[in-house]
Amino acid sequence: MRREEVARRVHELALAITDRLGVELVDVEITGEGVRTVVRVLVDREGGVSVEECARVSEMLSRQLDLEDPFQHRYTLEVSSPGLDRPLKRAGDFDRFAGRMAELVTSQPVEGQRRFVGRLGGLQAGRVVLHLPDGRDLKVPLAEVAEARLRVDPEELLRDLRRKRRRGEEVDA
Q: What is the dihedral of CA 105, 106, 109, 112, to 10 degrees?
């Protein structure tokens, strides 16, 4: 099986498992070659995914991969949360995280550059809107977004932490 076919099959298996467990499949990535191959699966849920949920996805996916044996060699399976700088993969992610800081890389240069940082404005008419620090709005067709991920904003983290404490929510430290 070619690498693209293996990645597609791993994605299908992971999606079936995450759907069954009620968690969101954020991304599947296969890196490395030969025995250094790493299969990285990112899962999430509203409010965050637990270590136990990651372990359960890992266990179930590992069993399925053992049954299907799509790799010609050993590999390492990693299942984790996408973290604070999570990738934005689906159209809905751009609306879901509107208002958050993000980094966007375009497939073709826009105004002489490909990498932009700003506040997400959502998806409008098939275009990702990014409010740039200089006050301009960048509008990039979704198909021309090569990579996008949230940026960690320390001030935003502090505001969220304070808000949770005021509401009496448990805070991970």
A: -40
| Count of all residues that appear for the chain in the document | 173
Residue with tokens 């010609």: 72
Model-wide pTM > 0.85? no
**pLDDT single digits (tens) 104-125:** 999 999 989 999 999 999 999 9
Which pairing describes strands 127-131 and 137-141: parallel, antiparallel, or unpaired? antiparallel
Neighbours of 99 (CB within 10 A): 11
Q: Does position 48 have pLDDT exceeding 90, yes or no?
A: no
Domains along the sequence of the chain with CATH: 3-80 (3.30.300.70), 91-154 (2.30.30.180)
Locate all alpha helices (DSSP H) within 22-122, ordered by sequence.
51-68, 91-96
What is the C-alpha to C-alpha distance for residues 133 and 152, in angstroms, rounded to an integer?
Answer: 15
